[in-house]
Design goal:
By secondary structure, the protein is an all-alpha fold. The protein is 66% helix and 0% strand. The protein is built from five helices and no strands.
Length: 100
């Protein structure tokens, strides 16, 4: 069941991103077969499509880290701290280490 939910969330994130960019939504069937549920959750956390480049991953991380930083969210610090950790974990999982 979790795999299905992750796929649904990923498709929704792709639709929203395509709508925001004014593009046709991508066909999710091509990538869904090879995407692991945990990996899909990372893309959803960073509000990205599975075809996002490393630069897109970095930009999304910086944008969301700034948005959810606990020092910027005094009114809901507990939620902000949790989301900040999720964003950081997603970035660590999706980024490619260029120093290797």
């Amino acid at each position: 069941m979790r795999c299905g939910r992750a796929a649904q969330l990923l498709e929704e994130a792709e639709r929203l991103r395509a709508k925001r960019l004014g593009k046709e939504p991508p066909r999710p069937e091509a990538r869904r077969a090879t995407l692991k549920p945990k990996e899909a959750a990372h893309y959803v956390t960073l509000e990205l499509t599975v075809t996002a480049s490393q630069e897109d991953v970095r930009k999304a991380y910086l944008r969301l880290a700034k948005k959810w930083h606990p020092d910027k969210n005094h009114s809901n610090a507990a939620e902000a701290a949790e989301r900040f950790k999720q964003v950081g974990a997603a970035y660590e999982a999706l980024r490619v280490d260029s120093s290797a």
